[in-house]
Amino acid sequence: MTAANGCDNGTTSDAAVLAALGKKRYDLVCKARLLVIGAGGIGCELLKNLTIAGFKDIEVVDLDTIDVSNLNRQFLFRRAHVDRPKATVAAEAVQQFRPGAKIVAHHGNVKEEKYGVEFISKFDVVVNALDNLEARRHVNRLCLAADRPLLEAGSTGHLGQVTVIQKGQTECFECQAKPTQKVYPYCTIRSTPEKPVHCLIWAKNLFDLCFGPADESNLLTDLANDMKQFQTQEAVDGEEVGKNMFAHIFQTDIEKQALLEDLWSEKRPPPTPLKFDEASKQAGNMQTQQPATEQDGAMLDSQRVPTVASDALGFVAAVKALYAPDRRSLIGQSTFSKDDPMAMDFVHCAANLRMSNYRIDRLSRWDAQSIAGSIIPAVASTNAIVAGLEVVQLIHVLEAAANHKKLRESRCRTIWVRYPEPSRKKILQPSSLQNPTSTCFVCGTKTARVSLRAFSEWKICAFAKTCVQGGFGALRPALYYNGSCIFDPEYPEPSEEAIEEGLHPEWTLTEWGLKTGSLLQIEDEGQGFSCNVVITEDPELSEEQYPTGFSVDVGAGGDEAPPADAAAQSGEKRKVEAEAETAPPAKVAAVELDD
């Protein structure tokens, strides 16, 4: 039996949905075209809920493949699915709940050009199920550019949130500053670590240095020549490479560090070198340093702190695995991921060995993975609650559109999941959607300020990558000054083609004629994002507070004008606005990066 609207509601499940939603809502659900981004913890629950609720036209995008560690909370996956794309398997699984539905899977990165504004515009609503801040910012901008409502959700342990974003009607994802990852001074990471996190950051940089593409911003670039020499031969013995790396990093380099007398004192003694032969002699005791207790019996192996011997052998074994024939082709292209077992083995063992060098208490693999991935272990029940709330808010969005209501006048809400300390004894806390923030550089005034320690030290290509891509979340930004393009993402490196276009990626900001108060325009066609940036040179910028060498401030409001040279570029109108300016820019926390 087919309903008049073309929806097949003859099955028992359709009849139940129709009875629960009512005819009007059911029709809206049947006709809606949805894009789901993410098929992980929240995404699996979300796709299951959407198909059971009657949605019949869904596309899902996810770049990941299934890992064994996903199976305890991403319930659409089974062991037989390991190494297959999450989007594909999730689509196949939920198709069984509603065989007549059209569910299309895309195995890819939502930041790829083919998933741009034109792609987003095909859908009625976009529903996020992402755990990545950078990707969430990107999708936020795509939906603003395409003028499509976005359901935004996330969870952290027992806490969760669902909200609705619509261009011009509500706050966007970037209206409120997000917590930024702490960045530690270079000298702490390179020479004087005091905490496990310092050693883990060092180990992540070591992995990228040894197995990733060349990157001038890597904190260990002084070791680059020594590390790369192990990769020059076509046929190499991975175990021998691992032992050579061990000797250089944990013995020779530590001996050099110990000779830097100015760094050490009675309170902070010099580090102790490790020799592989001596460290690996303790191989018989592979698991714990302390005698086993009754409580240890309930622990997973990954929750136990390994011995130095286990870390030494594990480091060499990890390098050998990374040089294995099925992995060797990725050397020079890899980047660290907490979900890559080989990469995590390398980083865990390397970090623990460095902790041994500096007499820092070492970590279990479980703790190391949590810190290195900056994660709080996911809770399946929270993901289920958040996914359910997304479907409820989605139906409210569809109703608001059908009734020509603005979202803030509809039943749409921001819902907070608070546990184990609920507010007013309620685990679910709704709040009204907020108006767009006038000072948001994404959906508001589109004006921001950047302070740099020294213009002469910033090449325009480094500024685009570190500050604009990292600090502003742009994907492929072009930079304009005085109406002329000074950086084009098509020409990120010096070349004859770049010169023909009048571009010099290797020039510094000073060589481009920029000075304090200069106004730059950022344009990112892929994101449909643009904003104005006023740059300021501040030699007094705290190196401890801003080790990346820059800070980002947000403009105070729509009537604010940038100073000096920026006002001159924009004519008399900006001059008048500048004279009327009465309030300084509202300062937010600097955007700090951990490369």
Tell me what the structure shows.
- The chain is of the alpha/beta class and 595 residues long.
- 35% of the residues lie in helices and 13% in strands.
- It has 19 helices and 14 strands.
- It has helices spanning 12-21, 23-31, 41-52, 86-95, 117-120, 133-146, 186-190, 196-211, 224-228, 238-258, 276-279, 308-322, 341-357, 365-372, 380-402, 460-472, 496-500, 564-569, 571-580, and strands at 34-37, 57-62, 102-107, 125-128, 150-156, 159-165, 414-417, 428-431, 447-452, 478-481, 484-487, 518-524, 529-537, 550-554.
- The strands form two sheets. Strands 3-2-1-4-5-6-7-8 form an eight-stranded mixed sheet, with helices on both faces. The chain has a six-stranded mixed sheet with strand order 11-10-12-13-9-14.
- α3 (41-52) links the parallel β1 (34-37) and β2.
- The protein is globular and about 80 Å long.
- Mean pLDDT is 83; it is low at 1-10, 283-294 and 555-595.
Please sum up the structure shown.
The protein is an alpha/beta fold and 595 residues long. The protein has 19 helices and 14 strands. Helix 3 (41-52) runs parallel beside helix 4 (86-95).
- Tell me the strand order in the biggest sheet: 3-2-1-4-5-6-7-8
Q: What portion of the residues fall into strands of 2 or more residues?
A: 5-15%
Alpha-carbon distance between the two ends: 58 Å
Count of β-strands: 14
Please describe the biggest sheet, giving its number of strands, its sense, and whether it closes into a barrel: 8 strands, mixed
Note poorly predicted spans.
1-10, 283-294, 555-595
Task: Compute the average pLDDT.
Answer: 83
Total count of helical runs of at least 4 residues: 19
Looking at the structure, what is the overall shape? globular
Structural class: alpha/beta
> Percent of residues in helical segments?
25-40%
Rg from alpha-carbon coordinates: 27 Å
